[in-house]
Amino acid sequence: MERLLRVTLVVIALLMMALPAVAGAGDSAAAPGHAAALTFFWIAVILIAAKLSSLVEKIGQPSVLGELVIGVLMGNAVLVGIPFFEPLKQDAVIAFLSELGVVILLFQIGLESNIEKMKAVGLKAFAVAVVGVVVPFVLGTYLVGPWLLPGLAFHAYLFIGAVLTATSVGITARVFQDLKKLQTPEAQIVLGAAVIDDVLGLIILAVVSAIVTVGSVSIGLIGWLIAKAILFLVGSILVGQLLAAQLGKWLAKVQTGMGMKFTLAICFCLVLAFLAQQIGLAPIVGAFAAGLVLDPVHFGYFKDPKVVSDVKAAMEGCAPDVKQKVEKAIEPHAYSHVEDLIEPVAFLLVPIFFVMTGMSVRLETLFDVPILLLALGITAAAFLGKIVSGLVAGNVNKSIVGFGMIPRGEVGLIFAMMGKSLRVISDSVFAALIIMVILSTLITPPVLTYLLKRQDRKSRPSA
Amino acid sequence: MERLLRVTLVVIALLMMALPAVAGAGDSAAAPGHAAALTFFWIAVILIAAKLSSLVEKIGQPSVLGELVIGVLMGNAVLVGIPFFEPLKQDAVIAFLSELGVVILLFQIGLESNIEKMKAVGLKAFAVAVVGVVVPFVLGTYLVGPWLLPGLAFHAYLFIGAVLTATSVGITARVFQDLKKLQTPEAQIVLGAAVIDDVLGLIILAVVSAIVTVGSVSIGLIGWLIAKAILFLVGSILVGQLLAAQLGKWLAKVQTGMGMKFTLAICFCLVLAFLAQQIGLAPIVGAFAAGLVLDPVHFGYFKDPKVVSDVKAAMEGCAPDVKQKVEKAIEPHAYSHVEDLIEPVAFLLVPIFFVMTGMSVRLETLFDVPILLLALGITAAAFLGKIVSGLVAGNVNKSIVGFGMIPRGEVGLIFAMMGKSLRVISDSVFAALIIMVILSTLITPPVLTYLLKRQDRKSRPSA
Fold this sequence. Notes:
Number of helices of chain A: 20
Oligomer: homodimer
Low-confidence stretches of chain A: 1-33
Distance between the termini of chain A: 29 Å
Largest interface: A-B, 89 and 89 residues
């Protein structure tokens, strides 16, 4: 607790230094670089809040949960009369940095994932994705919709079903990452299924929009959408593997510094994220594909070549076999992967995404009892539909896969907003859908953490 | 050359992949995350262009020169009918990232600088700053102005003089960094003088604006400005040293990971940059101060604690003295500084600043002969005034200090724009001042490189 107190005091001291300046910020609006400097301040506030919140790790929770919760607190502080954080919600630069943050996160996850392992679980992931799209869609459109909201147009039920299909991979990926479980088959299945789910979601969105606006949908359009998405994924992985291998060989030959490796890697990620978005997929799908194909061997580098020569010099006159053993022991440490260079960028940007995701939660929507009840019904369908998808995951921990698929996140929000702007769903249904997204986002991290730790205990019963 | 060809081919391949998408980007403006994804693409374009341009290193030039030149080419491609890069100029997010980039650069430079060395050259830096402000101001206001532009109001000459006083530290700092000369007394004097120059510039800007708008200026205002600036610099260095030492001790005690160290360091930089801007200084001055005070000992971390234990295990049964020697050889390599974590962030952001600085150069201003001649006169005064300041730098290479002070950059631009908006200077004088800023920015890197290399040759005549 003393530690917590110290951190808090330091933060308060920092904020005290800055607060009068923020309060008076309006006065000097004409000063050069004003907008940028204010954003510097907000980035610092978000990062410090995120680090403070990572104290949840002390109670065994992944730090992503802390980041989400502190975001919820910051975003709703205005409800208890603290409007301090409100400007953050309108800051376009922060919104961009948050999107860049989740792109960097999925790139990192892709780098840490193994493409061979992904291929091995490919069919299972496909099955999980399909079940995880079909079941929630059917539940939403034909059961929960008509049952909880009798008398609405079929289009409204269609949209509720569509919102339930989305999977947001960011939250789950962070939980797996925080708990160092990315290499497990469960994590690989969820990651693969989430990517496939994004493609399916793209198709559903197009079909549902066409039905609502035009009244029908052509098989040609659906075919074209599917072809585009498959072309992108297969193409970027095949072309990417070739290109990355070529680039890697070239890098190995010219002996460039880590600056070149970092730049090529990050540009690869950004270009694929951009291309994914251009064909209608989420940018994070492109970033993940980029991470998957980057050649782990060729994008490595000697982080510190001098260590080997220094140690050799120190061992002058030593027995040759000891020499060899020591050199062998050092080598893996002297050699490093481009992941290590991406990590600091992730330190800077990833917390912005999760704190801002938390900030977008509007707690006041929970205060309306009829809407809340409706939301709980929809949420139940949302959970059930995805948990069921875990059943087809084969010989792995099915609950981990099922719960890993639960978070809806931004894709669900986009569906809901589209339904609202097409006037297919009412404001109260919209609010209920938002609550469903919130609950799916906030409940998943602790549940997944519990399941992963239970699995650990089971596999080591003697511990 | 074959290497260059390969890089070019890879870049063309990447662009080919993206180009049709950019061309069709207007169609899918409604797609989610569209604006962000387009900015991802632009960041990739800037970073690849910057890395391509770093080929100037092969001809012994610092890579910052390459970044500036490729920026100039991109920014003026529209003159030869290629409007491809024009949207970049309006991208608010890119503008922010560029400002963040120069803040990160000056933080890095501050981290690499030694506060004791800075104190040792403090008086010399002060002398250089004062001469480097007074001489250009007098030259501009009383000589070049009245001589080249007879018959203008005194206020106009005053603004020309004021524009000539600014020093932009970014360019020079990058040249010293690229050539690994940051630890030389010349670099320390220039860095110190540039910070002091920013304070003097703040005062001059306030005084000149007051004279032009109100007609007079109160001693009280000047006193308050000086007091604020000194309070900030001395205060942030004193409080910062205390705070950084406290934080450092705490970090050493709680054994946090590098994530916490990185976050605290970068937040420290961002908050000081913000505070500097709030009192009217450039944010980079705050970032530099933050880098200066961060405790290099306590913000270090073991990047790879396992290397030591692995090597110990490999040396099992070895003579104790050899063991000790080897462990001693490894230790400095296993231990790392927070600088290493800032570096990848700098890889991502710093090139954006220099490419965008290059892009802001408008080559068409050089086509008007009378304006060009006027510009050359003003530029001569600008160069002379700063070169003279090197003469008071004491027992160091005076030309390196003098030329290091030459770049005007954004501070000069702000002065010029204020003069234009107050209608004190005409459009053609404004254009001439812009050309002066351009020339001071583009000529400095090669000249400084030449001087630094000549110094190297002199100090090692036998090489």
